Amino acid sequence: MNEAPRAERALLWLVALGVFMQMLDSTIVNTALPAMAAGLGESPLRMQSVVIAYALTMAMLIPASGWLADRFGTRRVYFTAIVLFTLGSLLCGISSSLSQLVAARVLQGVGGAMLLPVGRLAVLRSYPRGEFLKAMSFVTLPGLIGPLVGPTLGGWLVQAISWHWIFLINIPVGLIAALATLRLMPDARSPVGAFDLSGYAMLAMSMVAISLSLDGLSELGLRHATIAVLFLFGMAMFVAYWLHATRVPKPLFPLALFRVPSYRVGILGNLFSRIGSGSMPFLIPLLLQVGLGFTPLEAGMTMIPVALAGMASKRAVVPIVQRFGYRRVLIVNTILVGAAMASFALIGPDQPAWLRIVQLSAFGLVNSLQFTAMNTVTLRDLDGELASGGNSLLSMVMMLSMSFGVAAAGGILSAFTEAFGVERGPAALPAFHATFVSVGLVTMMSAWIFWQLEPKRRYPVPPPADPM
């Protein structure tokens, strides 16, 4: 990538800045949830709507991002995304109630729905396939600074000033990114037809209904019959969309995507393995603060090993995949990710600090490797018209699995806390431990999906090199 033109290198920095904004916001929010709950008069174990509102909005709107980028150009759409995300951050920062905060998070999600997939699409179209893995590794590496800085900075802001300020720090970063977009983002576009509005409506209703049914197990207090109806309605809408896509000439996501073996396995593997991973940023800060009595700053500093290990693993992805291949790496690493999640059941008041650091570092390392390998094997075999739709579907699945993961983890944790009868303090630790084991097992089972990658197929991987 040393030979890449200066404009392409600048593009990588710009997209990485967008990732930084997203990751900084996500990590700060998770660390500050208990403080938000205290300020808003809510239970810290019922605050997942703040996370779900953002993730679900992104998942709903991401399907339109590829069409918008092709229709109006990557530069205009990326600029609009940054503006909306920054405005949403401002509104979050001045919120005085949970309903206001959730509404502002929805606006953030509208911006984020276009920000991440359009940036990835610009990189996909600017770099040849042989250099795509290195380009994506670089884009996600600076973005890991967000998780490194976010939890500690967020904990300090919560203790020193107010939780409102964790959102306001996005504003200067957003202004810089918006100005840089006007100069650095290429205005790539492609001919597009009419938008599949009916298919989009079916898919959006399916995502909302399934997510609400999962969240209804804990936070919304819905009766069991309502939860069952929502879940069945969501599944029916998904089936309706699939049948719709088989008969219309230009569906929202072309079914030809699923005739590409690596994409078919990669997208399903992303969905199910990320359900567990998506719940961890929500569960770990709650465990540390609600179960072990950590302050927000202490909980934020404890998360540093996760980010550092994740950054270190990015440079190892290329040589590891080059030697063992995607199939073997993803099967083994998925099991390791699930085992790392389940190991948090060992955390307790008497656990040595060094062992906790080892657990957090191990999880950060294998989880980061998993994301990079999964994303790359999913996208690398897409050409031409399939690239835009495939990229948008991957981004949608990433956010949808986060929404499902947080909703499911909240429901599982609520069920276990009700069973044990305790919500706070060391007595609540068994409920947290059982939840970590549950999400770890779900993740490990998804290794069977990556088993379906072709064993004799060699996915070319470029030799390791400096990403810039």
TrEMBL record:
One Pfam annotation reads MFS_1
User: InterPro entries in the record, alphabetically?
Assistant: EmrB-like, MFS, MFS_dom, MFS_trans_sf
- What are the TM regions of this chain, as residue ranges? 47-69, 76-96, 135-157, 163-182, 194-214, 220-243, 282-308, 329-347, 353-372, 393-416, 428-451
Q: How does it sit in the membrane?
A: Multi-pass membrane protein
Q: Where is the Major facilitator superfamily (MFS) profile domain?
A: 11-458
Q: What is its main location?
A: membrane
Q: Has keyword Transmembrane?
A: yes
Q: Which UniProt keywords apply?
A: Cell membrane, Membrane, Transmembrane, Transmembrane helix, Transport
Q: Which domain of life is it from?
A: Bacteria
Which compartments does it reside in? Answer: Cell membrane
The protein's name: Multidrug transporter subunit MdtD
- Organism name: Dokdonella ginsengisoli
